[in-house]
Amino acid sequence: MDAANYLYLSVLLFTIGAVGVVVRRNAIVVFMCIELMLNAANLAFVTFSRINGDLNGQVVAFFTMVVAACEVVVGLAIIVTIYRSRRSASVDDASLLKR
Amino acid sequence: MIDLALAVGQTQTPEAVMFWILAPLTVAAAFGMLLVKKAVHSAILMASVMINLAFFYIAQDALFLGIVQIVVYTGAVMMLFLFILMLVGVDSSDSLTETITGLRPIAITAAVGFGGLMVSLLGRATLGRPAIGLESANANGNVKGLAQLLFSTYVWPFEVVSALLITAALGAMVLAHHQRIQTRPTQRELSTQRFRGISLANAAGLPAPGVFARHNAVDVPALLPDGSPAANSVNATLEARGDMLATGVFELGKIDTSAGEEK
């Protein structure tokens, strides 16, 4: 088995995540798909770190994890706030700018 | 060190076996996330994807990241997701009909295009030299190697990220803070409301759920004296989720007594 297989897996996961962001309408599921994309990128970082024999890739993946955690915290707080004012977590309902 | 792997480039058999078992599972779980209707099921599939990724990290000599993946993602982030789901989500199952016409075919076409492009790119790319592997970089242990990098080359980003974390925590607190517009009603006011209100129907409190001697679970509405079900005896959450049981079988006159008569 080639180490590049991890890269193919990473591409697949990223693509699935991207489709999820576009297709799903529940804000929380959309958010989880974003997490999936971040994780796929992390897998690519770790694999490249191994291929290049260099730990820098792992450090970047670590930073990505921290930033993802921040993003989740703030994003979920926004979802809760939106849900409080409009009783819905669907991304279609938050269309104030349209009207 | 964990010895799951690694003469890099051509990896050894145990890792290949693990990869070919876990990778299809991971992809299947990720697909499932797209397809399932309930957000809670998506969350559980997501957690399984993350655990599988942790295995991949550990197999690739990223021991620290693998552990952090489990602790931070499956531990903290997914718990946060589930927590918010519980807070927000009784009716958070998506209807899977598309609201924007043609969105789904376009999204799938774009995804196939992007995925195909990346895969063909990866298939053609060569490194120009054999892959190296992390044996020398991890000579003193993965954690030590990472720490040396983090606290030398990456000190400044590390500090910035810590500032970011604090900012995010504060921001979340500010966003989620709920300001009361009215004062909280006192017990006295609630009591007045109950007895001086329009109707005295609920003066003695709402009816308790369950049908005496037949079925007293919380999801069964109580029966009123005339035999009709009292919907307000069941928690509104259960009702919104569609988990309230029908009372037809328990109503007076409809109780099946034939089994007793036959004997």
UniProtKB/TrEMBL annotation, chain A:
<keyword id="KW-0813">Transport</keyword>
<comment type="similarity">
    <text>Belongs to the complex I subunit 4L family.</text>
</comment>
<keyword id="KW-1133">Transmembrane helix</keyword>
<keyword id="KW-0812">Transmembrane</keyword>
<keyword id="KW-0520">NAD</keyword>
<dbReference type="InterPro" id="IPR001133">
    <property type="entry name" value="NADH_UbQ_OxRdtase_chain4L/K"/>
</dbReference>
<dbReference type="GO" id="GO:0030964">
    <property type="term" value="C:NADH dehydrogenase complex"/>
</dbReference>
<dbReference type="InterPro" id="IPR039428">
    <property type="entry name" value="NUOK/Mnh_C1-like"/>
</dbReference>
<dbReference type="GO" id="GO:0016651">
    <property type="term" value="F:oxidoreductase activity, acting on NAD(P)H"/>
</dbReference>
<dbReference type="Pfam" id="PF00420">
    <property type="entry name" value="Oxidored_q2"/>
</dbReference>
<keyword id="KW-0472">Membrane</keyword>
<protein>
    <submittedName>
        <fullName>Unannotated protein</fullName>
    </submittedName>
</protein>
<dbReference type="GO" id="GO:0042773">
    <property type="term" value="P:ATP synthesis coupled electron transport"/>
</dbReference>
<feature type="transmembrane region" description="Helical">
    <location>
        <begin position="6"/>
        <end position="23"/>
    </location>
</feature>
<feature type="transmembrane region" description="Helical">
    <location>
        <begin position="28"/>
        <end position="48"/>
    </location>
</feature>
<feature type="transmembrane region" description="Helical">
    <location>
        <begin position="60"/>
        <end position="83"/>
    </location>
</feature>
<keyword id="KW-1278">Translocase</keyword>
UniProtKB/TrEMBL annotation, chain B:
<dbReference type="GO" id="GO:0008137">
    <property type="term" value="F:NADH dehydrogenase (ubiquinone) activity"/>
</dbReference>
<feature type="transmembrane region" description="Helical">
    <location>
        <begin position="43"/>
        <end position="60"/>
    </location>
</feature>
<feature type="transmembrane region" description="Helical">
    <location>
        <begin position="66"/>
        <end position="90"/>
    </location>
</feature>
<protein>
    <submittedName>
        <fullName>Unannotated protein</fullName>
    </submittedName>
</protein>
<keyword id="KW-0472">Membrane</keyword>
<keyword id="KW-1133">Transmembrane helix</keyword>
<dbReference type="InterPro" id="IPR042106">
    <property type="entry name" value="Nuo/plastoQ_OxRdtase_6_NuoJ"/>
</dbReference>
<feature type="transmembrane region" description="Helical">
    <location>
        <begin position="154"/>
        <end position="176"/>
    </location>
</feature>
<feature type="transmembrane region" description="Helical">
    <location>
        <begin position="102"/>
        <end position="122"/>
    </location>
</feature>
<dbReference type="InterPro" id="IPR001457">
    <property type="entry name" value="NADH_UbQ/plastoQ_OxRdtase_su6"/>
</dbReference>
<dbReference type="Pfam" id="PF00499">
    <property type="entry name" value="Oxidored_q3"/>
</dbReference>
<keyword id="KW-0812">Transmembrane</keyword>
<feature type="transmembrane region" description="Helical">
    <location>
        <begin position="17"/>
        <end position="36"/>
    </location>
</feature>
